[in-house]
Design a protein that fits this description.
2 copies of one chain form a homodimer.
Chain A (H helix, E strand, L loop, with lengths): L7 E5 L4 H13 L5 E4 L8 H6 L3 H8 L1 E3 L2 H4 L5 E5 L10 E2 L1 H13 L4 E5 L8 H4 L4 E3 L12 H14 L21 H17 L9 H14 L4 H16 L10
Pfam family, one (chains A, B): SpoU_methylase
InterPro entries (chains A, B): Alpha/beta_knot_MTases (IPR029028), RNA_MeTrfase_TrmJ/LasT (IPR004384), SpoU_MeTrfase (IPR001537), tRNA_m1G_MTases_N (IPR029026)
Protein name (chains A, B): RNA methyltransferase
Chain lengths: 254, 254
């Protein structure tokens, strides 16, 4: 499940067991499984951590190793990144998560072992901790509201670690009209309602047990089309026209 | 703080007030401020949401609008993305967060208004909800452990929205040696300890009130250097050699 070269996550003096458990869950979402704890405040194992991390995340906790000092926890690492809420006044590179994980992947490709350090919930890493890292990682959040918790910081780094191994190209969606002429959500909903209503009257949604699926397929169709407002107008008009002359066989077989 | 064109976040039938509050916090981290609630289970306003979202995130809740149906909530939107835990069997594009937000930025640049839909915590969006969206967004998590909660899903989408407006190029870190010859964390720590100890004996860390800062600067220096194991060996040897012949003036002024 986890590549052996995935980054190690080092929680330095973590405080709340719940947060350790939540961090294990966040890690495992992106295939990180090697957790190390430096001097956890409430000792180890911690039942609150276990309660938070059910299932496979519990195994991350079971395998977590505890160290007395950060130096011991990172002894076998080739490169370590210190996550901080803001840049520190240190002569050390400050990277975005994207840049840090790009750097990390390059190191791992060369056979290196890397670690991500996270500080205690309340105060973050001490300068002495950061001094042991090769670089600082700061998630660029809204400066007026920086409120990432420990598990969220772990989640974003894990996401960036996995991100570029994931497909990023959008599937073809059809060429969409420019926004100023495109039909908006209200237009599409009105069109879908209109068609559904008229088709319902026409007996289109038959047999009854298939009706929900047919209605769903139709709504999907409208929302998937790159329609302009003019297109929507035409489709409304066409529908009205079609139903005006009803009298022949119902269009159920169309 | 928030660009007026930032995506709208639509929580469809959210259940727990705490999660609505946590979603507001996650939004604001990346400058999203327009929250819309469709038929929140416990009514609105919700004191548990308010308790979770302190400060500026409380203002996101204050300004949140409540709608009876998803259709009303998305009436003024030009494009909507439905977040789901897995792809659905629908003929609709399934995008990664990266691809979806790239698409969203292009629409917004044309003057479009976009929305991100999130389903109820337990079950996610219904097919009827997804049918109203133009595309599906799925965060590619570990298939053996997909455990994103509502606020984490909002966080990752918000992060992707903001991500490409952020600097991504690493600052220069110096050319680092290949991993097979690079000094690892243990090597660097041993070197730092050795130097610190010998310099301490030599009276380098003077005056006493400046000593912590000087030690920190030195540790930063070692961890920032692209040292090989051979380099570390040389620096250990040089240090031993330098201190062996002590007797002249202490090296404090070097």
């Amino acid at each position: 499940m986890s590549a052996p070269t995935a980054p190690v996550v080092i929680l330095v003096r973590p405080q709340m067991g719940e947060n350790i458990g939540a961090a294990a869950r966040a890690m495992l979402n992106f295939g990180l499984t090697d957790m190390r704890l430096v001097a956890p405040r409430d000792g180890w194992p911690n039942p609150r951590a276990v309660a938070m991390a059910s299932g496979a995340a519990g195994q991350v906790l079971d395998r977590a190793r505890v160290f007395g000092t950060l130096g011991e926890a990172m002894a076998d690492l080739d490169r370590a990144y210190a996550t901080t809420a803001r840049g520190r006044e240190m002569t050390k590179p400050v990277l975005t998560p994207a840049a840090a994980m790009e750097d990390a992947r390059a190191r791992v490709a060369e056979g290196g072992r890397i670690g991500l350090m996270f500080g205690p919930e309340r105060a973050g890493l001490e300068n002495e901790d950061v001094a042991r890292a090769n670089a600082i990682v700061t998630v660029p959040v809204n400066p007026d509201f920086p409120s990432l918790n420990l598990a969220q910081a772990v989640l974003l780094l894990g996401y960036e670690w996995a991100r570029d191994s994931l497909p990023t190209a959008p599937m073809p969606t059809g060429r969409r009209p420019p926004a100023e002429v495109a039909a908006n959500g209200r237009d599409i909903a009105a069109l879908a309602d209109h068609w559904e209503g008229r088709l319902d009257q026409a007996g289109f949604f038959f047999p009854a047990q298939k009706a929900p699926g047919m209605k769903l397929a139709l709504r999907n169709l409208w929302s998937r089309m790159p329609l302009t407002r003019a297109d929507a107008k035409i489709l409304h008009g066409a529908l009205r026209q079609l139903t005006r002359h009803r009298g022949g066989p119902p269009p159920a077989g169309d």
